[in-house]
Amino acid sequence: MNADGTPSDWDPLGSQDARRLSSVLVHLGDTQADRISFNDILSALSERSFGALMILFSALNLLPLPPGSSTIFGIPLVLLSIQLLIGLKNPWFPAFIREKSMRTQTYRAFISRLEPLLLRFEKLARPRYWFVPKIIVERVVSIVALLMSLIVILPVPLINQMPALSIILLSIGLGEHDGVWLGTGLLVAALAAGIAIGLGASVGLAALHIFG
Question: How large is the greatest C-alpha to C-alpha distance in the chain, in angstroms?
């Protein structure tokens, strides 16, 4: 929500909405349909699609998933970050992505594992320590989220969770005007970038040692 109480373009958790993000995602799984498409998720999230989708895809990267899953869930994060950076009001995805679907049972299994995490975030986030105009914060968040998304899609084990966590914290901080979450997200992003740079440097030095 904006400072004047009007709805925000970025309201991922729905702090003033009886249907919080966790509730919306759980309710979507109550369908009788055999499959749930990505377009169904976009429609359910409606006006808070940007922030909610970034939280959703980032949170999926925190779960223990098969190798390569981080790349699959990281690509939408890259697209969302770029669109936020250039100022799109609503997220856009190609038709072939929007039409992708999964079995409803699989969706329910994912959401049942995500719901406790989302509930913790929803209980703790609130407006506080917000001193910078939202437009500036939004630009910073979009740039940092893009950099973190590029790390998430790397097919390297054990480096995807921290950048994904930073995107969650940044998205919640921006959506809830919560300076504590925002600052924590920037700190986690800095640590994630440092680890990625250190890993890259180590691999480069090892390659020089072997082939040099």
Answer: 62
154-210 confidence digits (pLDDT tens): 877 778 889 999 999 999 998 888 999 999 999 999 999 999 888 878 877 877 778
**Single pTM value for the model:** 0.83
118/56 Cα distance (integer angstroms): 9
CA distances to 8, 35, 123, 168 from 77, rounded to whole Å, are 21, 23, 24, 11
* Axis crossing angle, helix 49-60 with helix 161-176, rounded to the nearest 10: 160
Is 39:99 a contact under the CB 8 Å cutoff?
A: yes
pLDDT for the residue 123: 85
Contacts of 47 (CB under 8 A, 6+ apart): 7, 9, 11
- How far from 197 is each of 13, 70, 156, CA to CA, in Å? 32, 18, 13
**Both structure tokens of 102:** 């999964």
Note the Cα 109 to chain centre separation in Å.
Answer: 19
